[in-house]
Amino acid sequence: MTTIVVSGKGGTGKTNVAALIVRIISERKVTLAIDADPDTNLAGALGASIRKTVGDIREGFLDEKDKLPPETDKQAHFEYRLMGIIEEGDRFDILAMGRPEGPGCYCYVNNVLRAIIERLEGNYEVVVIDTEAGLEHLSRRTVRDIDILLVVTDTSRRGLETADRIRKLANELNIRVKQIYVVANKVRDEKDREKLKNMAEEMDLELIGFIPFDEELAELDLDGKPLTQLKDSSPAFKAVKEIVERLNIM
């Protein structure tokens, strides 16, 4: 199973990139999409519906766990409940983390989610995880082993600086990442491309591809329509497909 994690600074369009990656890979591979962003936007971008999230199950489990028979393996029961919220689609399945319960964190939920991913290893060829913006998701170590970490940046220097920090934090936390690449999104012209190339070289970051600003994608996003409606001929779709081909997982 190949695990692809999509990360980046807020506003770079990482969820749209993750959705297009899922759409493209799921044409040939059995794919699980995991929405690890509390805002839960990946499902909408994929035209999928989410009935319950991991956060919902966690809250329900906290309410009912003391009512379970004493002999019940509570962790096994929780894991079973989590398995039941994987939404099965024609081309891909999806699991959403949702928001953490109350003021707490996802520490326990993430531990169980890691176990679920490991358990599902034989069921899927590719897992694509759309993370929340920023760096916190790495510190929670939702995934121990990452085959491909794609950091999405816009045309700003801050986006590349975030990519650099994500790379350094992954190393500090000893997260096993086989490959780290930067994807430049919303690129408008050759001037943007040259600027990004130069900044990436300066920071020793590997740019795997450029996704042009796409009016059709922007309109779908603005209208809240799924990116499954994006034409194969659109510049953004073709660019993401080229990136997926470069990843050599098809």
* Number of separate helices: 10
Q: Strands across the major sheet, in which order?
A: 3-4-2-5-1-6-7-8
Q: Which CATH C-level class is it?
A: Alpha Beta
Main sheet summary: 8 strands, mixed
Provide mean pLDDT, rounded: 83
Query: How many strand segments?
Result: 8
**Count of spatially separate domains:** 1
Strand content: 15-25%
- Give the assembly state of these chains: single chain
Q: What overall form do the CA principal axes indicate? A: globular
CATH topology: Rossmann fold
Give the helices and strands as they follow along the chain.
EHEHHHEEHEHEHEHEHH
Task: Specify Rg, calculated over alpha carbons.
Answer: 18 Å
Give structural attributes.
10 helices; eight-stranded mixed beta sheet; Rossmann fold; alpha/beta; ATP binding
Structure overview:
The chain has 250 residues and is α/β, with parallel strands linked by helices. It has one domain (2-247): Rossmann fold (3-Layer(aba) Sandwich). It has ten helices and eight strands. It has helices spanning 14-25, 42-45, 54-64, 74-83, 107-119, 136-139, 157-172, 190-202, 215-223, 235-247, and strands at residues 2-8, 31-36, 87-88, 92-96, 126-131, 145-153, 176-187, 207-212. α1 packs across α10 (235-247).
